[in-house]
Write a structure and sequence with these properties.
Layout: E1 35-38, H1 41-52, E2 55-61, E3 67-74, E4 77-83, H2 93-96, E5 102-106, H3 110-119, E6 123-130, E7 135-141, E8 147-153, H4 159-172
Parallel strand pairs: 1-4, 5-8
Antiparallel strand pairs: 2-3, 3-4, 6-7, 7-8
């Protein structure tokens, strides 16, 4: 006599795992993240590493040997960048004849950071000096045309004290 083949039970239906709530701002990002268009993005990443101690987070190739997308971290902030893409009107300062965006970067030692940046190829636009608003600040243009205001916060000031200092500075400047 033939034995009947044992029938397998269909697998039990599993309850769907509850969906994890997705955060509107991904972990590691701030609400505002600069995205730089750069002619020579790979070289810019190397400059930002030397000048600002940037850490490379990711790099994705694009067409024609260009850098399609990259992310770096400077201090506690993420910056996105890629090579220019003319078809998307994504052009950097060198193609546009200058930048319309300035980046303010707080660091522990503005003097040392500006010195490192200039040694790496940046041009000083405004020398480092103490400002009325409590920061020690200098401005540089990186080799790719982006302007950076590099600062170390030195004093916490009340609004009244800041206003008094601004008025004093304006008077001294003839305003």
């Amino acid at each position: 006599m033939k034995k009947k083949a044992a029938r397998r039970k269909p697998p039990a239906k599993r309850a769907a795992a509850p969906k994890k709530k997705v955060q509107p701002i991904p972990a590691g990002y701030g609400a505002v993240t600069p995205y730089l268009s750069v002619r020579g993005a790979a070289q810019a990443i190397e400059f930002y590493k030397k000048a600002f101690g940037a850490k490379e987070i990711m790099r994705m190739p694009g067409p024609d040997g260009k850098l399609g997308h990259a992310e770096i971290r400077i201090g506690d902030s993420r910056v996105m960048l890629s090579d220019e893409y003319e078809a998307m009107a994504f052009l950097g300062p060198q193609s546009r004849g200058g930048t319309t965006v300035h980046i303010h970067l707080y660091v522990k030692d503005v003097d040392a950071t500006v010195a490192r940046a200039t040694a790496a190829g940046a041009k000083v636009v405004r020398p480092v000096q103490d400002q009325f608003y409590g920061d020690r600040t200098g401005s540089i243009e990186d080799p790719f045309g982006h302007l950076w205001h590099v600062a170390t916060h030195k004093e916490d000031l009340s609004k009244a004290e800041m206003k008094r200092r601004a008025e004093k500075m304006a008077k001294q400047a003839g305003g």
